[in-house]
Amino acid sequence: MPENEETEQSIEEPQETEPALEADGHDAEPFDADRAKKAINKKNAEAKALRDRLKEAEPLLAELQRLKDAEKSESERLSDQLAAAQERADKAIRAAVASKVEALARDFADPEDAVSSLDLTAYVDEDGVIDTVAIKDALADLLKRKPHWARPDEGGPRRPAPDRTQGSSGNGNRSPSDPAQVFAGLMAQALKGR
Q1: Alpha-carbon gap, residue 117 to 107, rounded angstroms
Q2: Alpha-carbon gap, residue 176 to 183, rounded angstroms
Q3: CA–CA gap between residue 61 and residue 65 (Å, rounded)
Q4: Contact 138, 130 (CB under 8 A)
Q5: Environment class of residue 117 by beta-carbon count within 10 Å: exposed (0-12), middle (13-18) or buried (19+)?
Q6: Helix/strand/coil for 93
Q7: Alpha helices in 72-160 (DSSP H)
Q8: What is the H or E stretch that residue 180 is in?
Q9: How buried is 101 (Cβ within 10 angstroms: 0-12 exposed, 13-18 middle, 19+ buried)?
């Protein structure tokens, strides 16, 4: 580890201080373009050196991580794999319950409302079996609490559909919006006027 101590010490180099500002906010010295270019070039060189050192350190960090993983005991590795597998299984179960809720929410105008309102983990037992009876009861209760989420009755009065021929033209003869039709109309008028 002595190499790391040397690299850490080389990082902490003393920084040059900027010239002090006078009380009125102007620099104590006038602006010198050559000095500014040299300072910028110096900072760019330092940044490049740091980027190069970072590129050199990345493979070392990857090797360090590989060595740390190799030091783990077999049980730690297996427990990590088990945790990852359990997380994937939980996501799959939540997706399955969400699909079941969405399928059973036929009475909702938007079944996604039901999916987002229910706690999906409450309808699965320890074996991963989905309790559809509990889901149906919860959906019925949800519709009682939020009747505005219900799908409108098909047998009730219908709202009139909009008629696009009515409106700004007054007589329903709207000009076509297709450029080909507009051009064809202009050509027909030009030929009639001949």
Answers
A1: 15
A2: 10
A3: 6
A4: no
A5: middle
A6: helix
A7: 74-104, 111-117, 132-145
A8: helix 179-192
A9: buried
Angle between helices 132-145 and 74-104 (to 10 degrees): 60
DSSP annotation of 108 reads B
Contact 135, 179 (CB under 8 A): no
* Distance, C-alpha 191 to centroid of its chain: 57
Angle at Cα 177 formed by Cα 172 and Cα 180, nearest 5°?
A: 125
Are 108 and 150 spatial neighbours (Cβ–Cβ below 8 Å)? yes
**Model pTM above 0.70:** no
Q: pLDDT in tens for each of the 194 residues of the chain?
A: 444 444 444 454 545 545 544 445 555 678 888 988 999 999 999 999 999 999 999 999 999 888 877 777 777 878 888 999 999 988 988 898 888 888 888 888 888 888 888 888 888 888 888 888 999 999 999 999 988 888 877 666 667 777 776 665 545 555 667 888 888 888 888 888 76
Whole-number Cα distances in Å, 131 to 21, 112, 123, 125, 140: 74, 19, 5, 8, 15
